[in-house]
Design goal:
mainly alpha; ADP-ribosylglycohydrolase fold; 14 helices; binds manganese (II) ion
Length: 298
């Protein structure tokens, strides 16, 4: 499996997890069972009344960021802030409170770095890290971390959001290199939980109804990702926990795509994904990787 194959699957996985999870966002596992049995079909609806295969802010903010990175040839805070601001002006189907507040701060001040706040520990920066992981693939760790913070701090300038974003980016990059699930567990997920106890996902009960708090989100994602063995099982496990299901779905889909590759994505899901979203994800995966690796290496 090539790096490009895994990168493309990560981007498609992000969009598919978003589209699958959005149907049951803000429902409890019990409500999901009553309505859907096991939710496993990309059927739209939900509180946003989506078309089947339509995605939400998790995917569209990632694409906005990816576009800005490609236009600049690097991860640049000012360009990212402008891209997110333009995205907000275009009236997206959904937008998080912290994202809106800090983009309004950018509009007013021109400063692409939100003020530091421990309260801004939502998952809004972590859900859109993929373009950074692709654009900085192969760079030294410190450069990767700086790029992580530049994009994240436009809307989320907080310790726990930073820890989550950096962990996810390094996990995706190692998955692209062909690391096993067990390696990702021991090299990234356990160390994150050891450093910040909020992220502990073992020896605690199953995380159901995960909130938008980034630690709650990652605990649900990690439990679903590490306790299953296929792309499909991972996403079904994660979204049926309900809560912020489009975002847990998006992050889990990104990780599972990078780990299992494009052939592991069910045809029915790929065929239902909105056509222009699908081609944007495929194009950005290729272009962002090409920006940092010689095409021959792919
Ligand atoms: Mn969303
Ligand atoms: Mn969400």
């Amino acid at each position: 499996m090539t790096i490009l194959d895994r990168a493309t699957a990560a981007y498609l996985g992000l969009a598919i997890g978003d589209a699958l999870g959005a149907t049951v966002e803000f429902m409890s596992p019990r409500e999901i069972r009553e309505h859907y049995g096991v939710h496993r079909k990309i059927c739209g609806g939900g509180w946003l009344r989506l078309k089947p295969g339509q995605v939400t802010d998790d995917t569209t903010m990632s694409l906005a960021l990816g576009g800005a990175i490609l236009a600049q040839g690097k991860v640049d805070a000012q360009a990212a802030a402008q891209a997110f601001d333009a995205w907000m002006r275009a009236k997206p189907v959904d937008i998080g409170n912290t994202v809106r507040r800090n983009l309004l701060y950018f509009r007013k001040t021109g400063n692409p770095e939100a003020p530091y706040s421990d309260h801004d520990a939502g998952n809004g920066a972590a859900m859109r890290v993929l373009p950074v992981a692709l654009a900085t693939f192969g760079l030294p760790d410190e450069a990767v971390r700086a790029a992580c913070r530049a994009q994240a701090h436009v809307t989320h300038n907080s310790r726990l959001s930073d820890a989550a974003c950096e962990c996810l980016v390094f996990m995706v990059q190692d998955a692209l290199r062909g690391a096993s699930k067990n390696e990702l567990l021991h090299k990234h997920a356990h160390p994150l939980a050891a450093q910040h106890s909020e992220f502990r996902f073992r020896a605690v009960r199953q995380c159901e109804n995960p909130s938008g708090f980034v630690a709650d989100t990652l605990r649900a994602v990690f439990q679903g990702f590490f306790d299953t063995d296929s792309f499909e099982d991972c996403l079904v496990d994660v979204v049926n926990r309900g809560g912020d299901a489009d975002t847990t779905g998006a992050i889990a889909g990104m990780l599972a795509g990078a780990l299992y590759g494009a052939d592991a994505i069910p045809e029915a899901w790929l065929n239902t994904l909105d056509v222009s979203t699908k081609s944007s994800c495929e194009e950005q995966a290729k272009d962002l990787l090409h920006q940092c690796i010689r095409p021959a290496a792919l």
